[in-house]
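idk why but the lab printer keeps eating my pages so im just putting this in chat instead. protein + coenzyme A:
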Amino acid sequence: MKVQGRVTRIAISGTGLYVPPDRITNIELVEAYNEYVRAHNAAHQADIDAGRMHAQLKSSDEFIHKASGIRNRHVVAKNGMLDPEIMCPRLPERPVDEIALSAEMGIAAAKQALESAGRRPEDIDGVICAASIFQRPYPQIAIEIQNALGIQGFGYDMMAGCSSATFALQSAADMVAQGHARAILCINPEINTMHLNLRDRETHFIFGDAATACLLEPAQGADGANAWEMVSTRLKSVYSNNIRNDFGSMNRFDPSTQFNDDKLITQKGRKVFKEVVPMVAEFMQEHLAQQNIMPSQLKRLWLHQANINMNRLIATKVLGREPTQTEAPNVLEEFGNTSSAGSIVAFHLHNSDLAKGDLGHLCSFGAGYTAGSIILRKLH
Ligand SMILES: CC(C)(COP(=O)(O)OP(=O)(O)OC[C@H]1O[C@@H](n2cnc3c(N)ncnc32)[C@H](O)[C@@H]1OP(=O)(O)O)[C@@H](O)C(=O)NCCC(=O)NCCS
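predcted complex ->
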């Protein structure tokens, strides 16, 4: 099948980022985790001594930084996360007539995107909220944001793991190109701490919270200083159980498993690493080849921010040499893995220095597996 390019040229005309003020360092996280381990092992000493249970092992800042590149993460509620007896964010439930936390975060990012594109809510016809997890199924967070911003038209939520942002951008670009909407806001309110297992040594350090937003509209008329034409987009998915979350409405069908650890994120990190790196590198290379773009023409890679070693390997395979920090910027150290928001955070923070006509490659990857590849060209 021959895949055609876009008929109407579409641009990301503005972006926005909301970062929650609460911040947790590795040192704080590890201290809480290790105190939890000490108390857990002490409480189960008899079973551990009798060989009926394994003692839990401590975590360390050195391991976390070396294995992932992460030093800090921003979170919606530090409160509770660092209490060894709670190990979960604690926030009071909001009344139904108060704005939802995800919507509040998404709105903050969306307002920045509108401002940087020089657009107002009345210029927009749709809102797509895309995230790896949502705080509720309905009414959709996108519609709550649409209502709060005073946007006519439509809104809906969608999920595609850590590729939710790129999958939404592809959908929105197609809709704008087809004339279904004049402009669409794609928003990624990622509250990853809601499904993070802080008692799991393998994953407790990985995720942080953030919200990003991109405004999409026809390239002709996208006058924002940091407007980027979406030269081409590709999506890919390959089924895998290696990153999994079994939280869902059917959990209450079986009270005996309702609160098991698999109702939060679980992952086989090594397998993910080994399988996703070649899959994503080949996917990006194929996409570039289809567009007759040489890797040497790329001024920047904005990769999903999962793990510094994964990103280095993928960038090295795509470019055919080690990337510099400027060529493939990392935001992991400060933000951790913010799921689908990650590649957009990297894009938002690291694109304004590039020049008119420069090419960049944005690529997400994650649970599903999913991957989304977007080749961008700076418009002004
Ligand atoms: C999760 C991940 C950081 C783990 O790094 P890794 O180098 O693969 O580490 P491993 O799990 O192989 O563990 C290596 C050692 O560190 C230990 N270790 C694991 N977690 C630890 C922790 N928190 N603190 C200290 N040591 C730890 C392990 O027990 C193991 O010890 P051993 O060698 O004595 O057996 C890495 O596999 C990864 O990032 N994978 C990709 C997953 C991902 O990013 N998913 C998101 C969506 S794309």
